[in-house]
């Protein structure tokens, strides 16, 4: 049983505590029997389940409510809880939010009205297309070109490592429009799947299977109305979206770590060694203490960043970077300890701690690798 005492911390309001309790009950009954062998089908199934439970309404703003905004604490609590139950469930929820985040934050009324109700109802799957073969963490180096041609833009170039690539109904694509060199010459567009000149060039496979793809654009024509914000706003839009969702990556890592600790506690109480429970060994007690400490420290950083953003801070780059760096790196450590304590079972294919070991690794890379988070923290500290 995962620790819930952190919900009493002052970062949360009663509505957050109610949300966490309701989601935990729902997930225990509804995140079961997911066949992960067909990842595409699993993600579609999970999006439908999350929509039926009305959880996706937290992933995007309600265009019918002018005061609607993304609540980062809710996003983090949902990701933490879903990750504790199933990595793909977390992924499916997260991508509905990240993939539509630019529309929630910067979309026109028409763009919001067209796409966000579909995201919130699960009728459209979203994707965030930022990374390129030569520009991962270096967003300012994006090369995909969007050239103005009358009332249209024409896209040429590639994106890669795009989550939901191949199953998304639309992609928020960042491209170079050339208003200025580097970061100031990027713009953001909404690109529906299946339009001429846009193809899924390659499906990518990883140690923890997720729908990932390389995208190719060849004279792909989209209307100027697909532009979000103004020309040259792309870098600002991308960073603003990451400023919201980077903390939620840390929350997902926290969920993985909590599940690893839960499995470990059960293991050390039930498993005997030398005629006594495994937990009687002081070395094992030390490992459990380290795991609990890393989890609480991660939670403090995650929910500090989320609370600051919800409290009206314009930017939380430093706090979100700290949360992501610490939580993802230390979740890896917590899960590694869980694998070690489980012995042979810990590396047996299909065991929960083995799957956690594979799931956690990517979180230290996507939405800004750990070393990039250190650069952000250092620069913000020096500033």
TrEMBL record:
Keywords: FAD, Flavoprotein, Oxidoreductase. Residues 232-381 form the Acyl-CoA dehydrogenase/oxidase C-terminal domain. Residues 14-123 form the Acyl-CoA dehydrogenase/oxidase N-terminal domain. The keyword Flavoprotein applies. Residues 127-220 form the Acyl-CoA oxidase/dehydrogenase middle domain. Its cofactor is FAD. Transmembrane segments: none annotated. It comes from the Bacteria. Gene3D superfamilies: Acyl-CoA dehydrogenase/oxidase, N-terminal domain (1.10.540.10), Butyryl-CoA Dehydrogenase, subunit A, domain 2 (2.40.110.10), Butyryl-CoA Dehydrogenase, subunit A, domain 3 (1.20.140.10). The keyword Membrane does not apply. Belongs to the acyl-CoA dehydrogenase family. This is Acyl-CoA dehydrogenase. It comes from Thalassospira indica.
């Amino acid at each position: 049983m995962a620790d819930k005492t952190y919900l009493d911390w002052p970062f949360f309001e009663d509505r957050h505590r109610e949300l966490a309790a309701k989601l935990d009950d729902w997930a225990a009954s509804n995140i079961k029997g997911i066949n992960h062998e067909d990842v595409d089908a699993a993600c579609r199934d999970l999006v439908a389940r999350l929509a039926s439970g009305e959880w996706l309404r937290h992933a995007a703003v309600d265009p019918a409510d002018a005061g609607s905004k993304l609540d980062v604490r809710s996003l983090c609590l949902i990701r933490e809880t879903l990750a504790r139950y199933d990595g793909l469930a977390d992924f499916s929820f997260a991508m509905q939010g990240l993939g539509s985040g630019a529309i929630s934050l910067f979309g026109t009324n028409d763009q919001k009205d067209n796409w966000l109700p579909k995201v919130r109802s699960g009728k459209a799957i979203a994707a965030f297309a930022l990374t390129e073969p030569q520009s991962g963490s270096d967003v300012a180096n994006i090369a995909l070109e969007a050239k103005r041609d009358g009332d249209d833009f024409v896209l040429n170039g590639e994106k890669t490592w795009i989550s939901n690539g191949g199953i998304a109904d639309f992609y928020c694509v960042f491209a170079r429009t050339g208003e200025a060199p580097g970061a100031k010459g990027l713009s953001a567009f909404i690109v529906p799947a299946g339009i001429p000149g846009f193809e899924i060039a390659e499906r990518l496979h990883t140690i923890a299977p997720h729908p990932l793809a390389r995208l190719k654009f060849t004279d792909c024509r989209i209307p100027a109305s697909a532009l979000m914000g103004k020309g040259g706003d792309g870098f600002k839009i991308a960073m603003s979206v990451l400023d919201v969702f980077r903390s939620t990556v840390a929350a997902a890592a926290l969920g993985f770590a909590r599940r690893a600790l839960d499995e470990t506690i059960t293991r050390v109480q039930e498993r005997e060694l030398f005629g006594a429970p495994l937990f009687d060994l002081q070395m094992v007690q030390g490992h459990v203490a380290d795991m609990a400490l890393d989890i609480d420290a991660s939670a403090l950083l995650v929910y500090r960043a989320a609370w600051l953003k919800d409290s009206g801070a314009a930017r939380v780059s430093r706090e979100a970077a700290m949360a992501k760096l610490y939580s993802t790196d230390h979740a890896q450590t917590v899960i590694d300890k869980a694998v070690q304590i489980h012995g042979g079972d810990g590396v047996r294919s299909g065991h929960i701690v083995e799957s956690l070991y594979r799931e956690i690794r990517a979180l230290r890379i996507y939405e800004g690798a750990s070393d990039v988070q250190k650069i952000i923290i250092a620069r913000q500290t020096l500033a």
